[in-house]
Amino acid sequence: MSKEITLSSENKHVFQSSEEFRKDALISDPGIYQKAEDRLAFWEERASTLSWFKKWDTVLEWNPPFAKWFNGGKLNASYNCLDRHLAGPRADKNAIVFEGENGDTQMLTYKELHHEVSKFAGVLRSLGVKKGDVVTIYMPMIPEAVVAMLACSRIGAPHSVVFGGFSAEAIRDRINDAKSKIVITADAGYRRGKVLPLKENVDEALKGVAEIDKVIVVRRVGLDNAVQGERDVWYHELMKDAAADCPAEEMDAEDILFILYTSGTTGKPKGVVHTTGGYLTGVSTTHQYIFDLKENDVYWCTADIGWITGHSYLVYGPLANGATVFLFEGTPDYPAKDRYWELIEKYGVTILYTAPTAIRTFMKWGESYPQKRNLNSLRLLGTVGEPINPEAWLWYHKHIGGERCPIVDTWWQTETGMIMISALPGVTDMKPGSCSVPFPGVKAEILNRSGQPVQNGEVGFVAITEPWPAMLRTVYGDDKRYKDTYWGTWPDRYFAGDGAKIDEDGYFWIIGRVDDVINVSGHRIGTAEVESALVEHPAVAEAACIGKSHEVKGQAIAAFVTLREGVAAREDLVNELKNHVAAKIGAIAKPDEIHLTEELPKTRSGKIIRRILRDIAEGRAIGDTTTLADASAVEALQQIGKQ
Ligand code: PRX
């Protein structure tokens, strides 16, 4: 039993892992926090657990805001995830246990995965992909996606994985920004019994992109016409006679491992750059310590490989640690609402890492679904992506964890690369709703705008005050944007973009984004992206989007739109606009609500006051309106609030 040790009048629960868990935990000595006070020594010792072709000259070179970790060292991420496990019994251990949406299964041992990756890396080389060339990957959640990522890192080609739910236009933007010449995709994927036309989206995306050399297509569904013309080629044909003798390229610790695009306050998504040595040190250490990884664990991270969680905690962290990773293509409710629990029972999953939005969905469906299944194999649970409300935490603890499993609530970002704030389950007490304390070797504080630490209990902004090994190194091709976005608020301190407070025990309570980023089901959507998609529609003059609290998704997108002169509000226009956004960006960005309005509330200088829109969307009394240029704008909007 993990024990609840207090329940104060303020409804603050504190949980401690069971004695048994703590006794067996990989990290059971709280002295680790003290030890890691010497950050550089801590991270250097952790780096030394990886396999290096050449040792580094320096642990950290810090020319704010540019960091070099383990500079001079040489290693390869794919080698660390595969080759180094082959000498001992891990060679025949499952690296990937896969189940597709349609129930097909596949197991790949470390030896087999190494074989596939080596072959595909050789294929990429033979197609002319060189160290430093960016390869775009747009794939369903199938083993070939992992093979593709590791094959890229094997030859030193940074990958740019684009989430399979993104639209053609989103793919095009990312291909263009990264100047990528090779795309790896699949004919299609499965989703809730339907076929997702991935290759079709790639074809659409590539219209007008001149630079593409090859599109490699994995046959997932069996659409024979998915490969056409000179440019396209089937993965299985390339692999048929490929040799498996592609040695791993010796990469500098600071060579780019991958680029991953994420939404920010303004403009198009930015390419977050992660490099090799520090990233791998950060993700392998956090994965091992936070998930208390043991040799026999069956570890399941439900995130898609298109997000950072998929990169760090489905691929690089667990495989560097020699874990057995369960990979699932489908959704929790197909064919039935107990699919996750069925899989946990079937494969004996021991560690489950998922998002609060999923947990709230399960809560809504009710406990009868998990109750039908045997979940006794589970020993540790994790959450990520957004704040978890204590009710959902307690439900997860009781109905999934059988009141036996500790829960690690992990705070981090695409940019941080690795988990930054989380409990260590054998050491740290857990408070539902708090991500607890910074990981050893990570320095985080809550500061006010002017950079002063706030009092305990006061709301401020999350700051990371010292560089950390898995930090982003820059925004791809845009050092200035990197500097301004993350290091422009306070000198030498990383601005995370989250509001938070620290309680009297030093625990962090994340409130949410303080910028114009909406967190929909744990996915970041920039208001600017949705707004620019909307104004590209011929009927729309202006658009403003906000995140509206949503019981399951955390936040939902609500948009306020004014129409162009002479355009009448047709009955089906709202739906048309919603679908237009989905087509431009992807279904995850589709607004839940679109309100047509005469005017938007603006300041005298013409800036839209989103706070007022938020009040209206959430049905609250409208706060301060003194800065409004035209008070009548609000009267019309108030009618919307009453609808
Ligand atoms: O607002 C925070 C929220 O997700 C943001 C980062 O989003 P992204 O880069 O897409 O990465 C998501 C997965 C790492 C953060 O700025 N967030 C992430 N984890 C938590 C969280 N908010 C509260 N609690 C968390 N555990």
Automatic annotation (TrEMBL):
Entry-linked PROSITE patterns: AMP_BINDING
Enzyme class, broadest EC rank: ligase
GO biological process terms on file: acetyl-CoA biosynthetic process from acetate
Protein name (Swiss-Prot/TrEMBL): Acetyl-coenzyme A synthetase
Protein family (similarity comment): Belongs to the ATP-dependent AMP-binding enzyme family.
Residues carrying N6-acetyllysine: 607
Record organism: Dehalobacter restrictus
Function: Catalyzes the conversion of acetate into acetyl-CoA (AcCoA), an essential intermediate at the junction of anabolic and catabolic pathways. AcsA undergoes a two-step reaction. In the first half reaction, AcsA combines acetate with ATP to form acetyl-adenylate (AcAMP) intermediate. In the second half reaction, it can then transfer the acetyl group from AcAMP to the sulfhydryl group of CoA, forming the product AcCoA.
Annotated residues for binding of CoA: 191-194, 309, 521
Annotated positions binding Mg(2+): 535, 537, 540
Source domain of life: Bacteria
Cofactor: Mg(2+)
